[in-house]
Amino acid sequence: MNMEKKILIIEDDQITLTIMKTMVEQKGYEVHTANDGAVAIKLTTQEDFPVIITDLRMPIMGGLQFIDYLHASNVDPVILVVSGEEDVETVITIMKRGVYDYLIKPVERNEFLLKIEKAFELAEIKGLNKILQKEREIIHSQKTDWAAWKDALLRKKMEKIDQNLLTNLTTGLSQGAGFGGLISLIQVIPMQAKESGDHYLVPKEVINLIMENANTAGKILDDFSEIGRAINSSFSLSPATVGDFGSLVNESIAAVEKFLLLKNQTIKINVIPESIIQNKIEINKENLKRVIVEMLINAMKFSENNSEIFAFSEPSGKKLSFVVTSHPPKKGNVVGIPPEYEKKVFEPFFRLNKSVFEDYPTLDFGIGLTMIQSIMQSHNGKVSIKNMDDYAGMKQEKEIQVAVEITLPFV
Is residue 381 part of a domain? Predict the structure, then answer.
């Protein structure tokens, strides 16, 4: 599971409650229980439950009233109803309230556990959608704030610039700086400059902001030039061995080694199997190194502090597979790359994470994976990105890793 495995079961029949609780706990879930909706309300105000299982007919507050309470409170768990009610009209009424599924008592164990597993998958998707919606709201808010800041700055008296305004402006520009910031600041200059003979006196803070945004704009141009060269230029492929590829991996790791210090991370590589070390591939060394470096630094950016990044080369049928894995931090209820986004992340300018990582020399505008995909296509290879389960280490539960894989055909 990619989220906290916590379930609330609401059932007034103690035998049924015990049976369901036992089944769920055996699958590793953390189970909380209540014997009616009123008790459940108190629990939901204290903790978040991604999945809730409820009966319908209970004392004090029944399941239907409890579901209505959740909707009115803007609480949005995935709800399973387990009830003895088989009336079609009742089932339809319940399902119209946004319930995920309806099971008739007594529940069959395998079906029950499968429904719970699917409910958690849905909860993860709903959690991701909430995060994306929140980010859209943040972006809209930033645009509105920027317009207000610019308008306020243009209205300021010429002899003074409010320092708080400049602080806010700096923050806004650092999150979306570049050409737009330069244009707006240039519009500000005539309103803030004072004539002095053949010269204008411009506040130092404005000049500093212009220089910062000029540097950012320059980085944007460099990034787009980089991907433009990789995507649009035709390059030739030269014969190489898998051993040569291994040397290229080592060169790439050496090139990015200094950035490991930013999060106290390490990179571990495997020993390439002797059986394939002399196998032939065709590569363009410069562009393939660009791909490996981008893979490694992206793994650093989107993984936890003090984590290990693994890079390993191995045969995969008639292809050489190179995989970089990393441990992503948890964001809300989502970890890593949800399945529905495994292809979308290769679209230009698409990003799951809105953050800009200025300390890393990679393409922070949602185009790094686009570049990798284009270069690999020119190598007659492929690239993919997905979550994978990691059962290594001392922990009882599996951990989620993000794996980025490129493949090159043997020749």
Answer: yes
Confidence of residue 365 (pLDDT cuts 50, 70, 90): very low
Q: Are residues 308 and 399 in the same domain?
A: yes
Residues in the chain: 411
The pLDDT value recorded for residue 223 is 59
Residues 268 and 381 in one domain: yes
Q: Which residues are paired to 31 by β-bridges?
A: 7
90 and 14 part of one domain: yes
Edge-to-edge order in the sheet of strand 101-104: 30-34, 6-10, 51-54, 78-83, 101-104
> Does residue 374 lie in a domain region?
yes
- Across 5-100, the runs of DSSP E, i.e. the strands, are 6-10, 30-34, 51-54, 78-83
97-106: which pairs have CB atoms within 8 A and are 24 or more residues apart?
Answer: 97/64, 97/67, 97/68, 97/71, 98/67, 98/71, 99/67, 105/16, 106/16, 106/19
Tell me the pLDDT tens digit for each residue of 57-104. 888 888 888 998 888 887 889 999 998 887 788 888 888 888 989 998
Residue 138 lies in a domain: no
Instruction: Clarify whether residues 245 and 365 are in a common domain.
Output: yes
The whole-number pLDDT of residue 340 equals 59
Question: Beta strands 30-34 and 6-10: pairing type?
Answer: parallel
pLDDT at 167: 44
Q: Please give the angle made by the CA atoms of 60, 61 and 66, to the nearest 5 degrees.
A: 165
What is the H or E stretch that residue 161 is in?
Answer: none
For 335, residues 6+ apart whose C-beta sits below 8 A from its C-beta are 2, 3, 328, 329, 387, 400
pTM score: 0.47
* 211 and 313 fall within a common domain: no
Tell me how many domains the chain contains: 3
Q: Say yes or no: 265 and 363 in one domain.
A: yes
Residues 245 and 313 in one domain: yes
Question: In which domain, by residue range, is 392 found?
Answer: 238-409
Section 300-314 average pLDDT: 90
What is the distance between the alpha carbons of residues 161 and 1, in angstroms, rounded to a whole number?
A: 52
- What is the arithmetic mean of pLDDT over 342-352? 51
Is there a domain that residue 1 lies in?
A: no
Q: Partners of 363 in the beta sheet?
A: none
